[in-house]
Design brief:
Three copies of one chain form a homotrimer. Chain A is α+β, with helices and mostly antiparallel strands. In chain A, strand 10 and strand 11 form a beta hairpin. The first copy, chain A, is elongated. The interface between B and C is large, with 73 and 98 residues. Chains A, B, C: Belongs to the P2X receptor family. Chains A, B, C: Functional P2XRs are organized as homomeric and heteromeric trimers. Chains A, B, C: It is a multi-pass membrane protein.
Chain lengths: 390, 390, 390
């Protein structure tokens, strides 16, 4: 019991501190302070000030809606004079975090289910029925072969297929793009972000804007960097692309909204940064299915109840709205981790200077004698070293 | 060789430990132990227990499907008595991580491509042909101006346009909302999550539920917090909004599913937490395009083959399903990092107490003599201090 | 002033290093070196080499487009002989990060708005008008009840409803699936990724591929692991599922593209890893709404201008393209944090060996006397210990 109390008293009322040898030497002292200063500059300057090592970070959670505006007119032999507005060229009408605007198209109107000649290519051109296999279908087919070889046009025969007839001929892509004027269309992007860890929300339509400004502004990186309305041609140009070139085969653009915020500052400093990037492979030569296109159909019923459809292979620009960012706010844990690591690094200064002092300098043996106390192992029974207190 | 062996023997068979001066002083001892206890409490209590600093974290990878149910009837002069079911008001029929339910609409049926009077506003109202520029089109136009000024109605003349006629008149938004009953529609949300780092998967339809329960339950934060079927009106109410108000101009709701899981516990403890938030700006006065709406068209062909369309400007509530969360599981690395930083922090206790002992206390000079050993630099040739071993 | 200069000189030109007692003991020395070696092995082997603790990490930002190819033919009494191509079975025609392919369907053609008998179930079967409440509608209803009880077929009477008539009968799901051949359809997936922190972009169509290879390859985990074209049946099989079974009620598949890249190596080492997983609950017995289905309608106008629709309850496989991954690149901060923590851990070796030497070994009292210097607190006036320098 007494021994227990003695141990507790010893534990609570004792303070142990390492014994230090202070070497008064200009050279070593300056080296030591220089190394310590370097470490301090690194910890404070780089870790804390530049990289904000005292902050906890969180990723953004975002919601986006878009609205396109614009009208254009075309005049072709197939379709005649025709107006195109939002309901015609935005497909589908609403999407999450993306918007597709048709810029070019190949229309195959009035398709019926029936038998007709397949599109000519290496596999479908034929001389007689023996070249055509009934029931054959490949990945690139428009329909199921019947086995017959029939005229596709006056000069070529191809295998007959059961398909939506007439089959689509998608070889000559219209050049220039059908809806050239799409360059002038505008897209309003409304974006709401939330940093869940810090319960911080903000919208990209800043509270300082008036309705009049918002109705008429167009985004410009220099003059209107926070206007949420983007002209389609400007988006493409800012990514270093040529709109009319891209409009022919379509493509995918990224409209990136970056919300890197320092939440130790006022909320008004947390603003979006817009950037633009082309996301698909522009190089037609080294890819399959260049650009961006897909097929959709409008279905009709004629007076006899037979279903017909208009197949449209539509090329256009899909704009992916990519919202990303990190918020940082002061938190104890990362601060302590970095302080702790910094303190440990100061130990490296001591290690380095020790090496210089004890192994490299002329007076190293002298310093070693001051620093180290050698204790030999002793054999039981020898009383010489026992009890020596120094 | 012998010197090499000597060095190796010295390296392997020596153990160096710092020499310590143990100061028996109640005051300093207690201060020292108090600071060390504080640091220990911080490391164990805050870093390890509260913030779970011993865990590696991973973000959630998620997949969501939705299914809406509900039927309502409307009776208007334009459309007559009409039933609306899922295929009519969910647009598009399926979407990834979102679902749109129409609540209000402005229908412009039987539009043909042709010439008609533009909607009256500051730019389109005219007295005679000189006010209208042929070929002019602005962002807010419905069509391309022809140059003529024609009657819009008995009192106003506007510029003629080539457009889908008659042009849409979207000024009087129906109040109350057209599909008021949408408040009673229900949405089943099926969510599957995966933490890739820990290869852990779970679904929001918990295995403890029976089919009967799932067929009839409605989510309630208190009584049925894990039922995956949500009543639309309850979602809006839980976010602090008024459904009928929101239904008029539409809006965007966030249905947030939070999967913060501690994977050191049983898998049954990993359950979703649902919360609801309005994502768009409610304030109509300080924003453009308040609420949420978009236009889509249904295309028809009349008996003569002329294409007509019914344009619908549809307002509604889009529900973004936002799944987020972090899983934590014990891992050696973050544990070691935090232990290491904690150990380094103990060094701070020594630094602090050293300052108190060596600079603040009455007996500081006494303690300094016990701690420090001053070694002067010496000049070669002086044999006084050389060889003194202490 | 002089004191100030003296303090500065003291600070700059002094170097303090802890005094060390070197115990020459084989046992303790070996224990010490073994523990230090273990810590070193852990820090270098595990933290730096295995877990790449010297790297900064970043999450992937991704964009995906898909294109489906394939044609199939069906022959049923309801629809006759019919061809199905991409525009018919991919709904909607384009989606972001997902693609839905219809495999089974229940078609209810020629629906008009009107009065007809509700589908029989526990709530709708009736004997006479008293069982039917006018205006009643439940979540599972097809329409609003009128209050009348009319024949559904020759044997059952159900409540009359105002709905799209005839109501859909979705009880017998076609087995086997309607579009069995969907197993052979192919999906081209084009994926572009971006690590914003390192400004690194890459596409999943690797630059080493020729157009010919890309036109004809099919993804195979062993022979063609980087071909971006996937056969639908193979996707399902690779996830351990049976395609024909899954095609009946539909389901959700995940096509996971993992981009874990070490950006300290050449960019060519950064390649995608594809994996497949079923995301919905396969077990029909323990879930509601098994599989994956939704309803959509095609709208027509007959010659008298009355609107009709064809309602399709479509079952199919939705493939969610899930892109995830982390890139790592050498960075100073995490390296320093881990080095700092490692250095602090070396201190643990000293703590452990101290415990062994000072408390466990036979010669512990001897070692304690070498290590510790006991200093008693003194009372002012006693000059005994003051000034003793050792």
């Amino acid at each position: 019991m007494a021994a227990c109390g003695e141990a507790v008293r010893g534990f609570l009322f004792e303070y142990d501190t390492p014994r230090i040898v202070l070497i008064r030497s200009r050279k070593v002292g300056l080296i030591n302070r220089a190394v310590q200063l370097g470490i301090l500059a690194y910890v404070i300057g780089w870790v804390f000030l530049w990289e904000k090592g005292y902050q906890e970070t969180d990723s953004v959670v975002s919601s986006v809606t878009t609205k396109v505006k614009g009208v254009t007119m075309t005049n072709t032999s197939t379709l005649g004079t025709r107006i195109w507005d939002v309901a015609d060229y935005v497909i589908p009408p609403q999407e999450k975090n993306a918007v597709f605007i048709m810029t070019n198209m190949i229309v195959t109107p009035n398709q019926h289910q029936g038998h007709c000649a397949e599109l000519p290519d290496d596999n479908t051109v034929c001389k007689d029925n023996s070249s055509c296999v009934p029931g054959y279908v490949s990945i690139h087919s428009n329909g199921i072969q019947t086995g017959a070889c029939i005229p596709y046009n006056r000069s070529i025969n191809t295998c007959e297929v059961f398909a939506w007839c007439p089959v689509e001929d998608d070889y000559p892509i219209p050049k220039p793009a059908f809806l050239q004027e799409a360059e002038n269309f505008t897209i309003l992007v409304k974006n709401n972000i939330w940093y869940s860890k810090f319960n911080f929300t903000k919208r990209n339509i800043l509270p300082t804007f008036s309705s009049t400004y918002l109705k008429n502004c167009i985004y410009d990186a220099q003059t209107d960097p926070f206007c949420p309305i983007f002209r389609l041609g400007n988006i493409v140009k800012a990514a270093g692309q040529n709109f009319q070139e891209m409009a022919v085969e379509g493509g995918v653009m990224g409209l990136q909204i970056n919300w890197d915020c320092n939440l130790d500052r006022a909320a008004s400093h947390c603003v979006p940064k817009y950037s633009f990037r082309r996301l698909d492979n522009k190089d037609s030569a080294n890819t399959i299915s260049p650009g961006y296109n897909f097929r959709f159909a409008k279905y009709y019923k004629d007076s006899s109840g037979i279903e017909t459809r208009t197949l449209t292979k539509t090329y256009g620009i899909r704009i992916d709205i990519i919202v990303f960012g990190k918020a940082g706010k002061f938190d104890v844990i990362p601060t302590m981790i970095n302080i702790g690591s910094g303190l440990a690094l100061f130990g490296a200064a001591t290690v380095l200077c020790d090496i210089i002092v004890l192994y490299c300098m002329k007076k190293r043996y002298f310093y070693r004698e001051k620093k180290y106390k050698y204790v030999e192992d002793y054999e039981v029974g020898t009383s010489e070293t026992y009890g020596t207190n120094s």
